[in-house]
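Operator note (shift B, R.M.): manual run for tRNA (cytosine(34)-C(5))-methyltransferase requested after the automated queue skipped it. Running by hand, logging everything below so the morning shift can see what happened. Input copied straight from the record, untouched. If output looks odd, do not overwrite the archive copy; leave it for review.
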Amino acid sequence: MGRRKPGFRKNHYFTHQRNRDNTKPQNSTERKPYTTIVRENEKFVQYYETQNVCSTKEEFDNFISVMKTDLPSTFRITGSKGVARKMLELVEDQLIKDCVQQEGSEKPPNIFALPWYPEKLAWQLELTRKDIRSCEAYYKLHNFLISETEHGTISRQETVSMIPPLVLDVQPHHKILDMCAAPGSKTAQLLELLHKNDDAIPSGYVVANDVDNKRCYMLVHQAKRLNSPCVAVINHDSAMLPNMFETLADGSSQQIQFDRILCDVPCSGDGTLRKNPDIWTKWTPANALNLHGIQYRILRRGAELLTIGGRIVYSTCSINPVENEAVIHRLLADSDGALELLDVSSSLPGLVYSKGMEYWQVSSRNLEFYNSFEEVDEKWRTTIRPQMFPPDQEVKEKFNLNRCIRILPHQQNTGAFFVAVLQKVKAFTAKEKKFENEKQESDNESKKRDFDERLPENQRKRRRKDVYREDPYVFFKEDEPVWKDIQSFYNISDKFEAQCLLTRCHEGKKKNIYLTSSGIRDLVVTNQSNIKFINTGVKAFVRCDNKNMKCAFRIANDGLESIYPYIGESRKVNIPKEDLMALLTNNDPQHSPAITSLSESIQEQVKDLSPGSCILIYTEEVKGSSDPMVIHISGWRGTTSLRCYTTQHSTVHLLRLLGGDISKYEVSKFKKAEEDSKPEETEAVKEDEAKEVEN
Ligand SMILES: C[S@@+](CC[C@H](N)C(=O)[O-])C[C@H]1O[C@@H](n2cnc3c(N)ncnc32)[C@H](O)[C@@H]1O
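Run finished. Output pasted below as returned.
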């Protein structure tokens, strides 16, 4: 996986469009620094005051003033149960002490676990990203966040963005569709939930889609950090997502109905004003009017692809009812009782939020507010549509719009967000009249928006060139020549489905071998002609033509957890802590530690182990947890030495878990800059920014 690392960082629609529109590469020096942006917009204030998004004037003033401040940093702890518990122990015992309170100020910044997130695995720091990046006292915290994010053990995701996957109630057997998935923080969370039982290969899977080809590669990068064989990245307009098919036990095929769907649609993003202050200068009520149609069509297509009894979560980072309750109301009205809003408040204990709005007004771009479509001035009737209005107040109860969740920034110092959870209770059939309305809407949108097919011919050619052509997905056949050697060298169980291994070339020497779950394999094989697959498969084996090893492939760390249970005991080595430390702290890349320098236990275990790839297993009890921390690392038994394959980030991560000395890696970029006599921090900051994963 992972063929390129794109540079986009924003995920709300208008900032994203701006990036797309710009023909020149974005140069950060051309951007207006956020500190100089005036965080004022009269229309914004007037619009939301009129919409009564807060219940009192005082609350509204508080809402506006918090909206003008920067966002605090947050992260989630991910990974297998044992490792996650150990990370939590480190965060509670060490991170807070060493990284935050050492600041030396009278009142250290607050850091706390989010009450509604299970098992204390999500944390909020009352420090902005900029505080952490630019203040020397926090360099250890910054290093921790960067290296553990890169390693995949934490995810730097905004608080409110963690909610949609949580309320989707994901189980490991679910077929999940993420309709608008890039850059992929929620996809990553969905995958973690799919793997929550620590099964090597869960039977469910995640199909992560985005219309934007380049942003699909951000998804690939995110998914790669989680090393799951259960995800496929695809590239379609989800309002017109083609049907997908699966093969049944008798060999026939049927259309896939997803168990869970996340519909985190493109939106005006005014809920992200704290993170993206440039929206202050661009905000108008027209943004929401322009997006309502596509939001509705994506949600409706999702509802069609959902199985009966399944859940779909609709979310936006917008405050505007036209993008939120209006879209939900429209679908509920169109679906004739096929969909119901669920009350999920009990699954988010301690979350402060406002109930969904049951009444709102629709406004023109000039802030003329209307209570019904009949009142709308003729000149606005192409942009303001009847479906944008609230339900008739006599029948509003039947829609339960108050079950929607609205989170405002002042409620718990977050961004603003909207979430609605829908369940499908019977088949969904589209109403005829809808299509007439949509034709009108599409016509309007086509004038305003610049989707690929609507670009001028000269730009279209350029965009097509940008699109990356994918290598094929070539799954192993039953008699795959290289498989025999691999299977016998690693003593792999017959239960392992070798047909789920794939390469990315039809001919020539196979370099990397990837693994998918059987569900993903079937999805790719069955739908390759109608679905544009961008990426799938976790790297399981890597070619290494070493004359001392009888097999041409070594085990890759990426896919190790998935293949581990199938590998015979003969190539597994239980490694004691001191030996693992010795391997991790070996400073000489040319000379791995000699076996004779390691413990007797290791010498005994590797005595009869032929040279080549092996798995090192480290186990440690975790305080207050019934799940021990178990770490598997790809290792190499040389003729006289032993080594482990780790990147620098994973070395730091492992040493941190083991309580080892990481001072050599704890570089303060401030000190380094001083020592190097380099001007200021600019390069270091740029590099750190590039490494930080957007949510
Ligand atoms: C709010 S962002 C999604 C954020 C993402 N769910 C996450 O958590 O990282 C909206 C995404 O929708 C994508 N998008 C816009 N229109 C789309 C469409 N018609 N079909 C599929 N994706 C679309 C955009 O490219 C953008 O990546």
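Quick read of the result: The pocket of S-adenosylmethionine is lined by residues 11, 161, 179-186, 209-212, 215, 237-239, 264, 266, 294, 298 (CB under 6 Å). Confidence is low (pLDDT under 50) at residues 1-30, 432-437, 442-465, 680-695.
Leaving this for review. - R.M.
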